[in-house]
Each structure stands twice: as C-alpha cells, then as structure tokens.
Amino acid sequence: MYHSRIIGPEDIAAYNNYIAWAPKGHILQSYEWGEIKGRGEWQPLRLILENEQQEPQGAISILKRSIPRLGRTIFYAPRGPVGDIHNPVMLDALFNEVKLLAKKHRAILLKIDPDIPVQDKLFADYLRSRGFVSAEKGEGFEGVQPKHVFRLDIKADIETLFEQCHQKTRYNIRLAQKKGVTILENCSKEDLPVFYEILKETTERDKFIVRPYGYFSDLWDYLVPPGYLKLFMAYYEGRPVAGTLAFLFGDKAWYIYGASSNSHRNVMPNYLLQWSMIKWAKANNCTLYDFRGVPGNVPEDHPLYGLYRFKKGFDGEYTEFIGEYDLIFSPFYYRLWTILEPLYQKNVRRLIRLKKVLHPKGS
Predict the structure, then answer these.
(1) I need a labelling partner for 210 at 20 to 30 A (CA). Which of 48, 85, 196, 299 fits?
(2) Distances, alpha carbon 191 to alpha carbons 139, 184, 233, 241, in Å
(3) Angle CA(99)–CA(105)–CA(111) in degrees, nearest 5?
(4) Element (H, E) at 126
(5) In this predicted model, what pLDDT tens digit does every residue of 249-272 receive, in sequence order?
(6) Which CATH code for domain 155-286?
(7) 3-state secondary structure of 326
(8) Which CATH number fits domain 3-142+321-358: 3.10.100.10, 3.40.630.30, 3.65.10.10, 3.40.50.720?
(9) pLDDT at residue 143, rounded to an integer
(10) What pTM, to 2 d.p., does this model score?
(11) Averaged over 2-11, what is the pLDDT?
C-alpha cells in the first residue's frame, strides 16, 4: 500500500512542496532546516511515504545526533510528522519505517513535538497506544520547541485584522508611525550584523543566551534564497533601533527572533515591526501567523507577563501543544540517557556562561 524512501538533494523541490502544503506542514520539517542543523552536531534523515501512484502521503525529517562514548544515537523530528495525523494506517507505516532506520543507526529514541493542540485527544491516544511516552520537562520554554504560542488567523482583510487588535496595541502601532519610525523590509545580508548587535543588547538586558552569529548567517544562506526567511529592521532618526526575523513556508509565517535597542523603546518600534510582518505574511497569501513562544497562560505578576501581553495584544489565539513524546527503541539506554541528558545540558550552559565571561563582546 505504501512505499518509503530516503529523500536526497535531487528531490528538494518536490519534498518541500509536499511539506509546505501537507497537513501539519512546518518549516522545521523542510529540507533546508535539516541542512542548517547538519552544520552542527546533527545529521538529517528525510523519509517520505508514497502510495502506489508515487504520491506523497506522509513524511518525517529526522535529525540524528551521536551520543559520545555510548556508540548510540538519538532521533529528533522537530514539529514532525507531516501528513494526515488521524490516519493510523499511514502513521503506522511511517513509524515502522522510522523503527527500521533506528535499528540501522543504533538510535535510542525518537523525540517528536508535533504541531498538534493539546485538545486533540485522538492523536495523543494514538501515540500512547503505539508506545510513545510523554517527555515533558516543565512549563514555559523548557521544551525543545515552545509548548505555548499565540497564533493569529489572518484570512480576514487587513483592516479587520487591525481593528481586532487590542486598543493599546493599535495605539502603539500608530504612535510608532507618528513618531517617524520606519521599517526596512528589503534588507540584505549586510544588515544582518546590525540586527545581531541589537540582539546581543537584548539578551544582555533580558538575561538569556544568544546563539553565535554563524548560526544566523547559516539561516540567511539557506533560507533567504528560497524565500523562507526575511529580516525586518526598524529605524528611528536614521538609526537602527529594533529588528525581527520571520519564517514563511507554505501558507504559514512565524515570528522567530526579535531584538530591540535599549534606546528609543518609547517610540514602540516592536509594535510596528509586528504589524509589518503580519501585513507581509498576508501579502504572501498566508492564512496563519505564529507569534511563537510564550511562558504559558501566566498571571500579571509573572516576570514574563510583558511578553505574553505584547503578543496577546494582536488578538492571536493562545495555543497549547500536546508537548514532547518519545518513542523508545532501547529501554536500557533510554534510562541512561534520561540521567545523562540533564547533566549534558547543564555542562553546555556552563560552557556558554564561561565563554561570555572570557569573551564578553563575542570576540
């Protein structure tokens, strides 16, 4: 009934076309995302399932990482699988092929964090019935991908979308325009270091870790040529004061990184940036705009409530995903991995902090 095959470079266009428009398609399952992660410690493996007419029915892009000294690997499919998630026959065939790959590559587990709302009990029941176990780490941003997001349906006309924003959000968008904030949308790669400097300023102010510049350079090189990434920069009085990066894939757009300078925050450049991205997504025939992660449905005294309020102000729908699930291939090594993985992550964070102390300006 189904046939599977590993996707290679010769199939990029057809593969991406399926991933972009299939049910639960996501840019993190695109061919290029695997190439970006392959620049580091991951190796991409893309598996597609086809019917007798060689038409794609399901797919999954897996990132494989070797575990030092164990001679084993782990599989991770960010926002996978792609396809009709309520077709158990197709899913069984797809995951059976993943199991064969796991045996070949000595994988301990397959981790997934699909783009499925928590209300979809049917899919969660399917996962548990097939041996998947919940691998939740906690609230907020502790998972590999955010579990809580705001998403905006942008099928309505742009005037309606603006009127649906919170009154204060509309006021701040107009304030930025009145104060003379301008948005540069035709950015080139020469603008990327400017954005990165503001991003470092943001991370120092808000106390979170920033990826090295090389990662953003890779994002640009792989995602800008096919039209999957765009940089927006906000200027005030001729100086860059904020910037954002957004993904676009199929009929969906994602706000992925935001940066703002410590100066001139009172002219509200971030509000005008978001509104510009929404209009851009709308102009590119998107039906969904994803604001990405928020720290759950938090109270007003939560330290990250400002981020929650900012995204909520655009009238997005608060969405909670079903979270992370692991399919275990080796119970012994899986138990060992659950012990070692937190230690590994702790050491990585310690090394990053040490590097920031030794090289405070990224030198």
Answers:
(1) 299
(2) 35, 10, 8, 13
(3) 55
(4) helix 121-129
(5) 999 999 999 999 999 999 999 999
(6) 3.40.630.30
(7) strand
(8) 3.40.630.30
(9) 56
(10) 0.91
(11) 95
